[in-house]
């Protein structure tokens, strides 16, 4: 493998990767420290210094990598996200330019999120926050319980990617009905036990609506007030995907009104969730669970990411596609670009 130049963004997740990447026979360039909250955006005045000789960019999901950076990097072969999400990368531009995009879609990562989704569903059904409060306040047991079993309920999955498929697998034996909406996954390509329906039907029928989409122009704020009001008043909303898939103002409104039974949210439009966010009113409530985009993270996940990042970068510098490729349709253009770079 020839020596290459790898740019690594500077923030907590990329810091975890830097040690693993440092074991490769390559030069590492670190980016400026993340300023947060929100995306880290690099100054065009720094492009030449940061990207002028770069073969591979490894950038966290809070680092914007747009077309202007790609065009300023004449030797750029690949862009790597250490996690599954690539919303901070202009994948369309990368594909057009023949730049491969890799990501950290390890089984530990996406199946961990599948487990976390089922955990949220069960915790909401059994009213875990309410029952925890009873103990905390040393309150007597209520005479009547309103918790419900997951068994016999309808689970609606918005999106049918790796994580949603893992949810379907993990719900086998729970005796649930599983619906899904995904215009890109026909019924014959869906996992056994999942029935394809239109979004409105899913919202109307489901006892739990769980988000499993990446954020695109088509999915941004796809669940707004109209969609939320189609849900049954006894239904719950679960989001372990991306905050921008929901209209947060609408979510707050329907929860405040009690138009739906509750929610479990692990992702938000702005992260960390601002202290001024009205959603923070629900912290400690009986029917809403809020976690800081960490519910599916574990030792197993964090141990897998540096291994995947190292393998992805190593393969690209060797002239092979990443182990986990987000835009496989770009491979032929990528080969031509790599051949031209030499």
Automatic annotation (TrEMBL):
PANTHER family from the UniProt entry: D-ISOMER SPECIFIC 2-HYDROXYACID DEHYDROGENASE FAMILY PROTEIN (AFU_ORTHOLOGUE AFUA_6G10090) (PTHR42789:SF1)
Oxidoreductase as UniProt keyword: yes
Family from the record: Belongs to the D-isomer specific 2-hydroxyacid dehydrogenase family.
Molecular function per GO: NAD binding; oxidoreductase activity, acting on the CH-OH group of donors, NAD or NADP as acceptor
Alphabetical list of InterPro entries matching this protein: D-2-hydroxyacid_DH, D-isomer_2_OHA_DH_cat_dom, D-isomer_DH_NAD-bd, NAD(P)-bd_dom_sf
Sequence ranges assigned to domain D-isomer specific 2-hydroxyacid dehydrogenase catalytic in this UniProt record: 50-104
Signal peptide coordinates: none
Biological source species: Immundisolibacter cernigliae
D-isomer specific 2-hydroxyacid dehydrogenase NAD-binding domain: residues covered: 124-294
UniProt protein name: Dehydrogenase
Domain of life: Bacteria
Keywords, sorted A to Z: NAD, Oxidoreductase
């Amino acid at each position: 493998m020839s020596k290459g130049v790898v740019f690594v963004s500077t923030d907590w997740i990329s810091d975890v990767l830097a040690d693993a990447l440092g074991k490769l026979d390559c030069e590492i360039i670190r980016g400026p420290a993340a300023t947060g909250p929100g995306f880290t955006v690099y100054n065009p005045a720094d492009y030449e210094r940061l990207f002028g000789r770069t073969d591979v960019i490894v950038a966290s999901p809070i680092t914007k990598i747009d077309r202007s950076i790609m065009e300023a990097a004449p030797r750029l072969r690949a862009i790597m996200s250490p996690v599954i999400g690539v919303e901070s990368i202009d994948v369309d531009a990368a594909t057009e330019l023949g730049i491969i995009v890799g990501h950290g879609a390890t089984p530990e990562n996406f199946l961990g999120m599948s487990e976390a989704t089922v955990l949220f569903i069960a915790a909401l059904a059994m009213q875990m926050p309410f029952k925890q409060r009873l103990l905390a306040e040393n309150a007597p047991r209520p005479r009547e319980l309103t918790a419900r079993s997951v068994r016999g309920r309808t689970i609606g999955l918005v999106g049918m990617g790796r994580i949603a498929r893992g949810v379907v697998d993990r719900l086998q034996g729970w005796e649930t009905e599983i619906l899904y909406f995904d215009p890109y996954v026909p019924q014959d390509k869906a996992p056994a036990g999942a029935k394809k329906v239109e979004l409105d039907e899913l919202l109307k029928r489901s006892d739990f609506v769980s988000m499993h989409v990446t954020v695109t122009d088509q999915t941004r704020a796809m669940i707004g007030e109209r969609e939320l009001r189609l849900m049954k008043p006894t239904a719950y909303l679960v989001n372990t995907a991306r905050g921008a898939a929901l209209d947060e103002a609408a979510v707050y409104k329907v929860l405040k009104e009690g138009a739906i039974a509750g929610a479990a949210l692990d992702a938000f439009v702005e992260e960390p969730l601002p202290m001024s966010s009205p959603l923070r009113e629900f912290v400690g409530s009986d029917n809403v669970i809020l976690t800081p985009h960490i519910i599916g993270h574990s030792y197993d996940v964090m141990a897998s990411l540096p291994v995947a990042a190292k393998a992805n970068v190593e393969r690209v510098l060797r002239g092979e596609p990443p182990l986990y490729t987000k835009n496989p349709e770009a491979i032929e253009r990528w080969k031509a670009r790599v051949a031209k770079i030499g």
